[in-house]
Amino acid sequence: MARIAVVGGTGHLGKAIARRLAKAGHTVAIGSRSAENAAATATELGGLDFGANADVAKDKDFVIVTVPWSAQTATLTQIRDHVGNAVVVDTTVPLVPPKVMRVQLPEAGSAAMAARELLGPDVRLVSGFHNVAAHVLDTDALVDCDVLVFGDEVEARNGVVSLVADMGMRGLSGGALANSAAAEALTSVLIYMNKTYAADGAGIRFTGLTKAPPIS
Amino acid sequence: MARIAVVGGTGHLGKAIARRLAKAGHTVAIGSRSAENAAATATELGGLDFGANADVAKDKDFVIVTVPWSAQTATLTQIRDHVGNAVVVDTTVPLVPPKVMRVQLPEAGSAAMAARELLGPDVRLVSGFHNVAAHVLDTDALVDCDVLVFGDEVEARNGVVSLVADMGMRGLSGGALANSAAAEALTSVLIYMNKTYAADGAGIRFTGLTKAPPIS
Q1: With CB atoms 3.0 to 4.6 Å apart as the test, which of A20, A96, A112, B82 could cross-link to A180 if both were Cys?
Q2: Which residues of chain B register pLDDT less than 50?
Q3: Residue A174 DSSP SS3
């Protein structure tokens, strides 16, 4: 079982991820800008560890960052000197309100590449969870959506694919960290489809993969 | 039935699209840089019309452009003064060999937005067909992949979604032309998955859409 911090863990996505990982038996800590905010969520989830982002980021196997695009820089700056050898999992989608149904990738190419610039080359960085609807993830229901994981380090990437499986979903490697742009852009398309095709959490499934893990 | 030109129609994707559209009863013309090249494909497909790209682009309802990224500028330049009120369907994926498994979106944001810059604001422009494996499309088999269509003009976009249905596939609107970046980027991910998960033409399906057309 892994030691996992969910930074920005009081938001909807963070809470949903923390809940599923804790249920799978991992040791999960909730981080927030202030330890007080984190405490409420940690209690709600059955007494998890909690603390300020910088504190929970220490001595972990995985540090999962679940904050809005507007908070990515500040949050990564808080944790970067504390993550050590942990795999940082950035889930940021570069949505720019009010036009969240329109793809607006940042200058770095993607939020993941922006994270790479902020964290420097030595932090083990993976991105993922861009296309999962938080309100569906935050239930025990089957999530009818593959979870794409991107990263330049195979072992780190595979570690996150494995966490996704623990959460009851199919994780798939999508290749290099730069490929995160595809999933991040797709999020705006999915928000558009929720409206256009009356979906309550549209998702994607990959077809034709003969050697992929089975759908849960 | 529509009058349709497939520009760059001697390539694998163009031929496959032309074959399915002709089978559905549309009047299809094959275009190529030279009329001679187009003639061979037109004959192979059962005696379609053919001609140089600029010629076949005239007096059509749809002009579908199926060329590699390296040929997009030259091809669009050949046809832009001839398409008139036709809906131009750009299928270009900005793959940059040799790293075709790596997302490398162009400065304009996407091949579709590059096409917009080249064609100017008055040409009716839609993009689509980025994620369909040409060798699967070029059979009568079911293509287990949704076809995303992007564009800023609803009527033009819906017209292409309807053509996709005629071809035996599920077409879905993906929203604004700028959203084409999502599908274009996804193509590199699919090429990566073909290799990583032993797929022969990986595809995507959208889930949770309660008001989408049925899968064929």
Answers
A1: A112
A2: none
A3: strand
CA distances to A167, A203, B216 from B140, in Å: 39, 27, 12
Which structure tokens are listed for B185?
Answer: 């980027």
Mean pLDDT, chain A, integer: 96
Q: Is the CB of residue B71 less than 8 Å from the CB of residue B94?
A: no
| 8 A C-beta contact, residue B6 and residue B64 | yes
The dihedrals phi and psi of B151, each to the nearest 5 degrees, come to 175, 155
Q: Is the overall model pTM greater than 0.90, yes or no?
A: yes
Q: Which CATH number fits domain B3-196: 3.40.50.150, 2.60.120.200, 3.40.50.720, 3.40.50.2000?
A: 3.40.50.720
ipTM: 0.96
Selected residue of B147, B207, B211, B215 to mutate for chain A interface (largest A Cβ count, 10 A): B207
Burial profile B146-157: b = 16 or more Cβ within 10 angstroms, e = fewer:
bbbbbbbeeebb
Torsion angles phi and psi, residue A31, rounded to 5: -110, 150
A1: number of Cβ within 10 Å:
11
